[in-house]
Amino acid sequence: MLISIQALRALAAWMVVCHHFMQIFFDFHAEGPIGHFFSSRGAAGVDIFFVISGLVIYLSTLSKPQTPQRFLLNRLLRIVPAYWFYTVLTGLLLVSAGAYLPHPEVTWATFVQSLLFIPTENPGGYGLYPTLNVGWTLNYEVFFYLVFSLMFLAPRRLRPMLVAVVLFVIVEGATRFGWASRFYANTIVYEFLLGIAIGVAWRRGWIRAGLWWPLALVGMGAVAIYWLEPNDRLMDWGLPSALIVLGCVALEPYFKGARVLKALGDRSYSVYLVHLLVLYAGRCIVQQWGASAYGVFFGFCVPLIAVVSSLSYALLEKRLYRWAKAWAPRTRAQPVALPLTRQNW
């Protein structure tokens, strides 16, 4: 795993945390440039996530042959246990303590659909959001996994084009004719393709390590996100996010040995899953005792998110993933994976 991308993944996760902090505590009515940035631009962390996801999935599957079934199983084992745990926890909280949450509605049907990554209208009436609201991005992730699994049915040189064609047919065709949920009509899914494109460029040696030109790309992407409204999310935030990811890939030599950044990136998925629950608890503290919102955020929410995400990563993500992989049926002996270096390609 590229440490620069792990660091960027951590940054993206905490951008989303700050975005939801502004939503839950201030209803996006922010004062000051920092508050305004996270209110209006913190959601761009999701776009960075999607580009990173396309890059990581593409690179991680190059060094070993796989079947579509094995690829899907590995990916689902990676994301499902923690997601199901926090979805169940959220469902229990909605039933038992819904009065303390802004949208206390949950039904058995929507709960089960959430577990199965099926987009459905939230019973709270505010859109196609699962029981654990942040899971809407995982619905796109699983959709991308399904499409990406088709790559293993085609020659390697044709695989990125095949994924692009299938995504285009579904987003631009199937959704318009009602053959697929309108949820998938969002062009945000093309951000996965941007990540694949960066992966192809890196594999072919087109991305050269550097300092100033990668920093310039990162700066250009950040400025674009800051100034552009996401009227067309792919163009306004997706492409700038790709510039940021591309710049970080080229900066990889400067991240060697950065264990803390790698550790933060490792925990980013758990940060993403747990932060809403912690922020809701923080809001209850503010409402009950009239504490300062920023004081509660930095003194209670941030430390607790950090601690819980570390425990979640160690106990849910790593341990359950290893247990599930050991339990899952194995395919016939596979060749030993080669290290992910250009020399092996």
UniProtKB/TrEMBL annotation:
Residues in the signal sequence: none
**So where does this one cross the membrane?**
42-62, 83-101, 134-154, 161-177, 183-202, 209-228, 234-251, 271-290, 296-316
Domain Acyltransferase, first and last residues per copy? 3-306
Q: Which GO-annotated molecular functions does the record name? A: acyltransferase activity
**Keywords associated with the record:** Acyltransferase, Membrane, Transferase, Transmembrane, Transmembrane helix
Domain of life (superkingdom): Bacteria
Q: Which residues form a coiled coil?
A: none
Q: What is this protein called?
A: Acyltransferase
